[in-house]
Amino acid sequence: MLDSKTMDEGFLMLSRRFFLNEMWKVSREFSDCEAWLDLIQGARFESTQQTEKIGGREITYGRGQYPASVRFLSKRWKWGDQKVRTFIEKLEKKGMISTDSSQGINVITLIKYDEYNTTNNTTCNTVNNAPNKLINNELQEYATQQITQPVTQQITQSKSCEANNTFNILKNNELCNYVTQQKDNTVNNTPNKLINNELQEITTQQITQRKINNIYNNKNNIYNNLRSTNVLLCGIDEQSHSEKIDYAALVNYFNNETKGIFGTIRMPLSEKRKGMINARIKEHGKKTFIQMIKKAVLSNFLKGENSRNFIATFDWLIRPTNFEKVISGNYDNKTNKDDTETINTTSKEQRDKEFADHIFRKLNSS
């Protein structure tokens, strides 16, 4: 069991896919905790600064920052405007965030964002080194035992040995009888001593080899278990990493489908664009990437039919947060023409029914 000090340290890794889960997306009034989590997942992850046109203004923000007005957050969290302001002020007083409205819109900065979003290298290295540390500890412990504890097993337990050329390989009981018989005939004890030494050496080697085999078998089991745990925590699908990307074909498909609505992409692609495309396909797969393009083309909001005259671009669409919002249906066409809302058009009753059906299936399967 973890002590209280251990429980207060470190981080619990949470995949960004959690925020696409139907349990998170169910329509509700957010709690303070949920609102804080929403700020963390909504802040910009990339280290480079981004300039975006929001509300008719050019807004520049960087890693760990989130441009969001009080009105936007109140609709997102199902809160009143005053409650949002009070919550933001409370976070500022606690030193968790800072705000800046010098650009004409409130830009929230998460003070310790890098602590909440560390790289995977430290985690993966810790996991991969664990089996080696365990193996070294086991080998060191076994070596200490071999030095401090003499072999006490009697030679009579060995079933076979390599005898001196004078003798054949005999069972130990037969060997003892043979040596006893030879004493009356004044046989030199030297061969017998040699045999005993050889028997002891063979027995020690066999014990050592079995111990080493057990250690390496345990090592393989530990490594496999830790590897599986690492895949689960990091949210990685190893099969998706093997997908090869034909960038030229992808660019042609995008240009043909969008017909210049979001701008025309030209080859060759920059390394930055390739990296963003590769990251999205690794996270979601090629089929989902194609689905994102199709949904974007159908979205009136992304094509400029909104109060800000905002039109999406290819680079905007392949950002991690925007990509997930598009495939989640946040920019699907709505029946009420409210272009400032970016929530799913599914009715509250239908979402509640789907959530209830999901819980019912879980209960039946358990």
What does this 3D model show about the protein?
54% of the residues lie in helices and 6% in strands. The chain has helices at residues 4-7, 22-25, 32-42, 70-77, 81-93, 113-116, 120-148, 172-183, 190-234, 247-258, 271-284, 286-298, 314-317, 320-327, 348-365; strands at residues 50-54, 57-61, 65-67, 97-100, 107-110. It has a three-stranded antiparallel β-sheet with strand order 3-5-4. A two-stranded antiparallel ribbon has the order 1-2. It starts with a helix and ends with a helix.
Tell me what portion of residues adopts beta-strand conformation: 5-15%
Low-confidence stretches: 121-128, 158-167, 226-242, 339-346
Instruction: Give the mean pLDDT.
Output: 75
- Cα-to-Cα separation, first versus last residue: 26 Å
H/E series, N to C? HHHEEEHHEEHHHHHHHHHH
Coarse structural class: mainly alpha
Keywords:
5 strands, 3-stranded antiparallel beta sheet, mainly alpha
Write a brief structural summary:
The protein has 366 residues and is mainly alpha-helical.
Strands, helices and their partners?
Blueprint: H1 4-7, H2 22-25, H3 32-42, E1 50-54, E2 57-61, E3 65-67, H4 70-77, H5 81-93, E4 97-100, E5 107-110, H6 113-116, H7 120-148, H8 172-183, H9 190-234, H10 247-258, H11 271-284, H12 286-298, H13 314-317, H14 320-327, H15 348-365
Antiparallel strand pairs: 1-2, 3-5, 4-5
Helix pairs in contact: 4-5, 7-9, 11-12
